[in-house]
Design goal:
Helix content: 10-25%
Distance between the termini: 22 Å
Oligomer: single chain
Structural class: alpha/beta
Number of strands: 18
CATH architecture of the largest domain: 3-Layer(bba) Sandwich
Strand content: 15-25%
Number of helices: 13
CATH superfamily of the largest domain: FAD/NAD(P)-binding domain
CATH topology of the largest domain: FAD/NAD(P)-binding domain
Shape: globular
Amino acid sequence: MHIDARTLEAGALIEGDLCIIGAGAAGISMAMEWLPTGRRVILLEGGGFNVELRMQALYHGESLDRPYYPLQSATLHYFGGTTGHWAGFCSPFDPIDFEKRDWVPHSGWPFNRAHLDPFYARANRYLELGPYEYDAAYWEQQDAEVRRLPLDAATFYPKMWQFSPPTRMGTVYREPIVQAKNVHLYTYARVVEIVPNEAVSAIDGLRVKTIDGKEHRVRARQYVLACGAIHNARLLLASNRRAQAGIGNDHDLVGRYFMEHFEITAAQVAFEKAPAAKLYLFPALGKTRARAEMAISGNTQRQQKILNGTASFQPGALTGREQSRFASFSADAEANVKEWQAKKWAGNRTPPPEVVFRMFTRQEQSPNPESRIVLGTEKDELGMPRANLRWRFTPLDKRSIRTFYELLGRELGRAGLGRVQLMDWLLDGDDNAWPNILSGGWHHMGTARMHEDPKQGVVDPNGKVHGIANLFVAGGAVYPTGGAVNPTLTVVAMALRLSDHLRQKA
């Protein structure tokens, strides 16, 4: 069922069993899981069914420390959320990503990769992917021409990706949600405050505003915050009438540990002869689009004490004109969405017989409490303080990229395949200096991290906000670490895990 909140009488009371705040990848996949339950589910979306500049303007904020994408473009404020402009890259986190690593401060998840595997398999289906197979050996068996480079598997291995169409969740799942009898989708229902009881031990309700000035109230037994890492933190911090520092922020952790993926051209590889690189370049294999990237093994990460990272091969040499993607995005959020949606994979192209390739890195960011979302003094049209970004790095971040390519150069040389040339920014010796070609992946993680100890995390291992009986957080906000892969597959897997937990409680 769909209701435009602007059509309700001012002061309307909306009630249900479960309230999901945010209709992006996490919120929609959770709502779909509740369709057969008969429970009354409230799904609140602050925007409508299409991107609108006025709604995106509510997400305006400043990057206070370094260049970043315009924040009003980095998160989409309409049904489907940021799946409206994602590129569809999917791969699960590696086992080491869940481990407590003594060289990575604040690392460690409360469960391991094997625990999440069944939820990954289910998430594969929601994102219209192929079989839950992310081992290169499986893909090599499908095509005799698909072979990994002959490198030492103890150091480097081919990490597999599958590519969603990409699934626009606001389009694919709109009809079943709108037609559902027990899921009540409210559009233009922007939550501006989470209201706890006087003891701040449970949530009593929500304050919702529409863009035309009406205000409504929402009550439910359980609440799930699924607005993305930036705006989950923003709403928790701004709900400070009874909890002075914000809800869930007794230990000053909400908004901290913001993480992105470093995405940057770091080197070029010159092969002795054109490599058999179909595994690393092909955009399609039958009906399933898949590709490998060069990845560094968990054991090598332990030995070298570095972060997780991958590198992809891009045909052609460095030009000297490489630039950050930050500069290519304007404040016009609608134009940015159209640009992302226009990008398509090129089908079954045969890769060119190149011998020189640019190496594009995607690396995890070390969790850093000084990298954070903070509230600004300026307020948006509905009276909420804006969210500002302080994106800060550690020396481990840059050293990890340098070590990755030094090891890759040695390994390609040992195998007699070719040579690696590092870009100058990796050779400057200053691990606190970053070049102006640095980009990010639009991958917002952290800000409401998961930990058993309330002094080290905002939510517990089930996603429940510490000290609040009926408030949960979904999405990348709860990640203790960010791995080296795009977060959407894990966002959906974690949402399905949380949904199972809430259904068992119900």
